[in-house]
């Protein structure tokens, strides 16, 4: 469980992508040390796969939107049920065609919530 409200990347999608990217960079580093083009290409391929896996998991609800969340949403194993609509300000959601900001104005409760957090 995360101990703070801003838990960017503390999600199943974030940790899975990080693990795959770590393997990719290790293979990439081994390719640099051994001057192997095959290992360099393989390492870069694994890093690209890590980005795609993270994006797909985020869109499936295993990633969370940026910003503040209620305490019950802090754990990294909690699935985000609002992912289908897209997250405001999220590049990954926008690339997938999920843009909740299109044609919507923020609710008064969201504005009050954002103002009250910014004063703390």
- Determine the structural class based on helices, strands and strand pairing: mainly alpha
Largest sheet: none
What is the domain tally? 1
Q: What is the oligomer described by this structure?
A: single chain
* Strand segment tally: 0
What are the low-pLDDT stretches, counting only 5+ consecutive residues below 50?
114-120
Mean pLDDT comes to 78
Which key phrases capture this entry?
0% strand; disordered C terminus; mainly alpha
Outline the structure in words.
The chain is mainly alpha-helical. The chain has one domain. The protein is built from four helices and no strands. α1 (12-34) runs antiparallel to α2. The longest helix has 26 residues, at 37-62.
